[in-house]
């Protein structure tokens, strides 16, 4: 890599909850740290985040703004940029989209994932409002309303059963899932939960006066619904890890790096945290994972430097 170079002790790639949490620990440990933030948080469509003790109901943008202010107090540098290449060596060399090149002894990958939504008219427009995916994130706010669940894989049965905890009026639209794909256990559980099963493809959502009012099937039938749950296809943003040759493992939600309990990947000196290492990392889990990785990296650097003097 050519061009300007800047040395850091740690580069954090990704400025969401996981990356900022790691940077906060490292900054407080007096480590020269750079956060590279492309500004694409997964929860950007949501008006509020829930389930984070003491931050329940806070807008995600406000949460991140406070996090950026906090890391700045400890001298952590943050740039709005994108890491486009990374190479190992004595130090890791990271190329940014702006043309800047930076180096660091350790790297934390906190690039998260992207949600690919079902291509049903109305879903993308209402996502984060009355089209939702996580009952733990939004179930309380829409409790006891008329739910619809849009099936895209046989695993959608699990989602339909889960959301029945928050409403007893749940309709499961099979959409892309043939009724024959449902097992006897699926049908028994759906019946026990009071979930109505509706076969047939969904043509689109009915939106009236800026709110969801129904689900329209391909045959023209409309089912009145106030909320629809979908299961986006998770697309892990693991390109940098793949460039480094990190060992990956297949999951029902995509391929993620193999990591140890601190987030260390199979590449020495490279950690993965937040949704870069797993699908189910909610904000509070991501922040905890970033904290753990940051603390471990600081200790590792400390003892590595001490051992050089022996």
From TrEMBL:
InterPro entries documented for this protein: FAD/NAD-bd_sf (IPR036188), FAD/NAD-binding_dom (IPR023753), Ferredoxin-NADP_redctase_2 (IPR050097)
Residue ranges that the Swiss-Prot or TrEMBL entry lists as coiled coil: none
In this record, what's one Pfam family? Pyr_redox_2
Q: Could you tell me what reaction this enzyme catalyses? A: [thioredoxin]-dithiol + NADP(+) = [thioredoxin]-disulfide + NADPH + H(+)
- Which Gene3D superfamilies does the entry mention? FAD/NAD(P)-binding domain
Arranged from A to Z, the UniProt key words for this protein are:
Flavoprotein, Oxidoreductase
- Keyword set includes Magnesium: no
Which part of the chain is the FAD/NAD(P)-binding domain?
A: 8-289
Q: List the protein's name.
A: NAD(P)/FAD-dependent oxidoreductase
Q: Which organism is it from?
A: Streptomyces lanatus
């Amino acid at each position: 890599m050519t061009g300007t170079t800047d040395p850091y002790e740690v580069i954090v790639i990704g400025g969401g909850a996981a990356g900022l949490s790691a940077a906060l620990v490292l900054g407080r440990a007096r480590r020269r740290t750079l956060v590279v933030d492309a500004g694409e948080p997964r929860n950007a469509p949501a008006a509020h985040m829930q389930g984070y003790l003491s931050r329940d109901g806070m807008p995600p943008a406000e949460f991140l703004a406070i996090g950026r202010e906090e890391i700045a107090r400890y001298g952590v540098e943050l740039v709005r940029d994108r890491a486009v290449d990374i190479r190992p060596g004595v130090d890791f060399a990271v190329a940014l989209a702006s043309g800047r090149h930076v180096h660091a002894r350790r790297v934390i990958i906190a690039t998260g994932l992207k949600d690919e939504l079902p291509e049903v008219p109305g879903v993308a427009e209402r996502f984060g409002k009355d089209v939702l995916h996580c009952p733990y994130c939004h179930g309380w706010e829409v409790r006891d309303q008329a739910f619809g669940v849009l099936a895209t894989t046989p695993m959608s049965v699990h989602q339909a059963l889960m959301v029945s905890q928050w409403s007893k009026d749940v309709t499961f639209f099979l959409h892309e899932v043939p009724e024959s794909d449902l097992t006897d256990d699926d049908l028994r559980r759906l019946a026990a939960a009071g979930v109505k099963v509706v076969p047939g493809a969904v043509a689109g959502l009915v939106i009236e006066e800026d709110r969801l009012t129904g689900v329209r099937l391909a045959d023209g039938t409309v089912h009145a619904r106030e909320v629809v749950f979908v299961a986006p296809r998770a697309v892990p943003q693991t390109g940098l890890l793949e460039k480094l040759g990190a060992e990956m493992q297949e999951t029902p939600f995509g391929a993620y790096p193999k990591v140890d309990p601190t987030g260390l990947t199979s590449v020495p000196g490279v950690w993965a945290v937040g949704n870069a290492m797993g699908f189910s990392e909610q904000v509070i889990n991501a922040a905890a994972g970033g904290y753990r990785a940051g603390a471990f990296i600081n200790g590792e650097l400390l003892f590595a430097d001490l051992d050089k003097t022996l």
